Amino acid sequence: METLLSICLGIGLSAACGFRVFVPLLVMSIASLSGHLQLAHGFEWIGSYPALVTFSVATALEIAGYYIPWVDHLLDTIATPAAIIAGTLVSAAMITDMSPLLKWTLAVIAGGGVAGAVQGTTVVTRGASTLTTGGLANPLVATAELAGAVVTSILAILAPLLVVLLLAGFLLFFGPKAFRRLCRPRPSV
Questions:
Q1: Rounded distance, CA 78 to CA 124, Å?
Q2: Contact, 32 vs 39, CB < 8 A?
Q3: Residue 182 domain-assigned?
Q4: What whole-number distance in Å separates Cα of residue 103 and Cα of residue 95?
Q5: Do 37 and 28 contact (CB within 8 A), yes or no?
Q6: What is the DSSP secondary structure assignment for residue 44, as one 8-state letter?
Q7: 104-137 pLDDT, tens digit each
Q8: What residues make up the domain containing 77?
Q9: Cβ atoms within 10 Å of 109's Cβ, excluding its own
């Protein structure tokens, strides 16, 4: 049961990486330093004070960047591969009592995959916001994404099974809509 909870915790934190790359790492660092989160062997550095300072600065810069017009789209370009890498990292940091091959395979497929799926949905949402409002609603989208990252990170630590169920519902509801919007033929001018 402990292995299942660690996998759910890793997947939940990976999903949060899809909203914001550094928020889940900051939450993990705080939770580890306060004794509320046990990190897998080799990932104890996430719960160190230098990592806490680094994640705090990176989180502040990432949050601020998403409120600057056009910088938010540049960050989406950078954040997509970064979210997949961060999702893989946080999953691996949470999965314990498993062979390294299985652990990293699961971290790449589940953690990186979930982070990429959530990040892809946010990119499509931001693009739709830009097209429909000329970017005026992008700060609202950025605020919703930040809230999603914070809530998902905290819920993943407090109730890992619940966050995986909520994540599945989110992806089942928004995933097909985003895919249809992305694949819709554009009218020719």
A1: 15
A2: yes
A3: no
A4: 7
A5: yes
A6: G
A7: 999 999 999 999 999 988 888 888 888 888 888 8
A8: 2-170
A9: 12
